[in-house]
């Protein structure tokens, strides 16, 4: 019997018992839909969490915090020699390094002021890493500075109260500095204690550039870039590294740590591609550098969700196993009812393997159609869940979840996994009835007895 004839025979027999076969389809489809929808929750939450993490970090960025060395307690700061090693590594796009003024920076212009962080940065490497200006130019003189995009937006009146700030912590538009900051003189107040008294010295700078607006809406850039020479002038005034304050009222103030001139407070490596991040990170770890990148965080997150997905798929498989009982019952009944047909096929010389294949084809047919129906239904349920749950949460708890939060996501791999599991289960379920069909006695079958 040709394979085409075997399929025709299977379809004809299935039509004779439509109700029973339909219920078997339904049970299989429900099992598959349960597996896919259940596992899709882990896939959806993983997608949302990973997206959130990658949005809050530069994907190709590697933070280097220090290097482990013998005889050094903890990690020593990164210096110029380390920077040279980083820049010589393969697939490194740029290496930014910053020195940070070690005291609160309060900048004043007229009746407006703002407290923020001040950095000394290597501007060529910053530009290479993606730093851009919205206005002006990069500094050339020691008294020229570049400010972050949000710096002008947060210059507040000196006598300001908390009422002038909005929910995001920014100064409301009616209270902001109205002038054109570019080209204006601005003063930085530097503090230090000498002979038990606080001394404040203003350092005057000219704003020559304003950074480009951050690509992420939630990110605020209020930082200020000063020159290395300006930091040295501040250090000459304070008598400390990075302008640290020796406050006699603070315990241990006179034992403030010293910073080497060629050391840096913040060092970031930017890779040419996401794929190169892991290679660079592994190379740095071999050289005893303390690093952090988004790859480390994603690895842990993905591991947790992989375990969750495996567990949910296992639970979903139980539903398919329950449905397999129906397939086994259907196939057993089919063997009993078709005993005369089996007897006739044997009488005319049908091979037992052919008879066995016919019943395995029928069980496979039921499993695959049920899996297909279950997959279609699961996509509908997934869409409905993503649409309805935010509305339910808003009504029940009064809080609107993030617009990009995905409760259910069905990648193409999930239906494939489901179909493979379902197919395997249905083959196992139909195997014993198929073997029983090959052992049907011809004479008894012709008398319609099994």
UniProtKB/TrEMBL annotation:
Family: Belongs to the ABC-4 integral membrane protein family.
Keyword Membrane: yes
Residues covered by the ABC3 transporter permease C-terminal domain: 313-436
GO CC terms of this entry: plasma membrane
Name assigned to this protein: Metabolite permease
Gene field: ytrF
Superkingdom assignment: Bacteria
Chief location bin: membrane
Transmembrane segments: 21-45, 303-328, 365-392, 412-431
Membrane topology: Multi-pass membrane protein
GO MF annotation terms: transmembrane transporter activity
Domain MacB-like periplasmic core: residue ranges: 22-235
Pfam families: FtsX, MacB_PCD
């Amino acid at each position: 019997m040709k394979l085409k004839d075997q399929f025709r025979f299977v379809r004809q027999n299935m039509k004779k018992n439509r109700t029973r076969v339909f219920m078997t389809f339904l049970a299989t489809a429900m099992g598959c839909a349960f597996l896919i929808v259940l596992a899709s929750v882990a896939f959806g939450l993983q997608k949302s969490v990973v997206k959130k993490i990658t949005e809050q970090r530069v994907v190709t960025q590697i933070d280097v915090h220090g290097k482990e060395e013998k005889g050094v307690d903890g990690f020593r700061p990164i210096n110029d020699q380390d920077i040279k090693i980083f820049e010589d590594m393969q697939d490194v796009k740029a290496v930014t390094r910053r020195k940070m003024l070690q005291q609160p920076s309060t900048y004043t212009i007229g009746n407006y002021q703002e407290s923020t962080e001040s950095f000394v940065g290597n501007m060529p490497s910053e530009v290479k890493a993606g730093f851009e200006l919205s206005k002006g130019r990069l500094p050339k003189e020691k008294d020229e500075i570049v400010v972050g995009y949000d710096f002008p937006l947060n210059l507040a009146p000196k006598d300001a109260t908390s009422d002038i700030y909005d929910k995001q912590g920014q100064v409301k538009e009616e209270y902001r500095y109205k002038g054109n900051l570019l080209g204006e003189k601005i003063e930085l107040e530097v503090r230090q204690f000498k002979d038990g008294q606080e001394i404040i010295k203003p350092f005057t700078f000219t704003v020559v550039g304003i950074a480009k607006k951050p690509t992420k809406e939630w990110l605020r850039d209020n930082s200020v870039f000063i020159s290395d020479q300006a930091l040295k002038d501040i250090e000459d005034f304070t008598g400390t590294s990075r302008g640290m304050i020796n406050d006699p009222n603070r315990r241990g103030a006179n034992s403030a740590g010293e910073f080497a001139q060629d050391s840096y407070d913040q060092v970031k490596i930017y890779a040419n591609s996401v794929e190169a991040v892991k290679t660079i990170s592994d190379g740095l770890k071999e050289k005893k550098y303390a690093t952090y990148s988004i790859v480390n965080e994603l690895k842990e997150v993905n591991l947790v969700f992989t375990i969750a997905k495996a567990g949910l798929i296992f639970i979903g498989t139980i539903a398919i196993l329950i449905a397999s009982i129906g397939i086994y019952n259907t196939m057993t009944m089919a063997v009993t009812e078709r005993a005369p047909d089996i007897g006739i096929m044997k009488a005319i010389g049908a091979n037992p393997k052919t008879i066995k294949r016919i019943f395995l084809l029928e069980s496979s047919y039921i499993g695959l159609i049920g899996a297909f129906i279950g997959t279609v239904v699961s996509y509908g349920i997934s869409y409905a869940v993503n649409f309805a749950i935010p509305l339910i949460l808003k009504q029940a708890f009064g809080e609107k979840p993030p617009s990009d939060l995905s409760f259910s996501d069905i990648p193409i791999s999930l239906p494939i996994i489901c179909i493979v599991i379902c197919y395997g289960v249905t083959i196992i379920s139909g195997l014993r009835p198929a073997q029983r069909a090959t052992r049907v006695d011809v004479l008894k079958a012709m008398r319609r007895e099994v």
